[in-house]
Design goal:
Number of helices: 5
Largest sheet: 4 strands, antiparallel
CATH topology of the largest domain: Alpha-Beta Plaits
Number of domains: 2
Strand order of the largest sheet: 1-2-4-3
Helix content: 55-70%
Number of strands: 4
CATH class of the largest domain: Alpha Beta
Distance between the termini: 148 Å
Structural class: alpha+beta
CATH superfamily of the largest domain: Ribosomal protein S6/Translation elongation factor EF1B
């Protein structure tokens, strides 16, 4: 049986054209949606990367600040260590405990110390006899030879001693003992006066002395001084 199509060709072509256009519009919408989604995703990722970059930069800044502070602390530590070494060399060319032990060991029986002061002073411009002048001559020779001389080593360690004794004879004996010590030099009496302690008359004395320059103590000297100090302490 023969099929007869009563639909005009123009209508068919128009319908097909509409369907084609609709399909193109759908495809265009899909592509635009994909592009929009891609753009949104890229933008979100970019924001996330920017946030990470800011965080990394912040951490790097904090790390650089911490490194800077650490370097400053290291510099201060080195300066403090240098100062401590210079101070130790300046104030204690001989351990202070040994000086105190020597001062105590040479006390006559019945005498005791009240106060001991250690003072650093620059040497006087006037040349002094004895060990001081020899020391300065040695320093001048070192300077002339080009060797580096520490200014701190030119300072002198002076010692002020206050104590009490039973008599002036004990004070004189103490001065003689200190004068013969390997640690002290220029021992001199400043004052000696009567002092009443609970009805008993004592001699309160004040002495000055100076630490010898370039003192070199052997381990045997140190052991003897400390042993004598311990013996004196137990005996007392």
């Amino acid at each position: 049986m023969l099929n007869i199509n009563f639909v005009p060709d123009d209508y068919v072509k128009s319908s097909e054209s509409r369907r084609t256009n609709l399909l193109y519009l759908v495809l265009f919408a899909v592509v635009m949606a994909a592009l929009g989604g891609s753009f949104t995703t890229i933008k979100i990722r970019r924001r996330a990367l920017n946030a990470k970059e800011v965080l990394v930069n912040t951490k790097m800044g904090q790390a650089q600040e911490a490194i800077k502070q650490f370097e400053e602390l290291q510099t201060k530590r080195k300066a403090m260590m240098k100062t401590a070494l210079v101070t130790a060399e300046l104030l204690e060319p001989v351990p202070r405990s040994l000086l105190l032990a020597s001062l105590t060991n040479n006390l006559p029986a019945g005498a005791s110390l009240l106060r001991v002061y250690f003072v650093q002073k620059e040497p006087k411009d006037v040349s002094r006899a004895g060990a001081t002048s020899k020391y300065r001559q040695a320093q001048a020779q070192k300077a002339a030879s080009g060797a580096q001389v520490s200014q701190e080593k030119l300072l002198e360690t002076h010692i002020d001693i206050e104590g009490i004794a039973l008599s002036d004879l004990q004070v004189a004996a103490y001065i003689e003992r200190l004068g013969s010590s390997i640690l002290l030099d220029n021992v001199a009496l400043v004052e000696s006066k009567e002092h009443d302690i609970e009805g008993t008359m004592f001699r309160q004395f004040k002495l000055t002395a100076m630490l010898r320059k370039d003192v070199h103590l052997t381990s045997g000297d140190i052991s003897r001084i400390r042993a004598k100090r311990e013996k004196a302490t137990y005996s007392f």
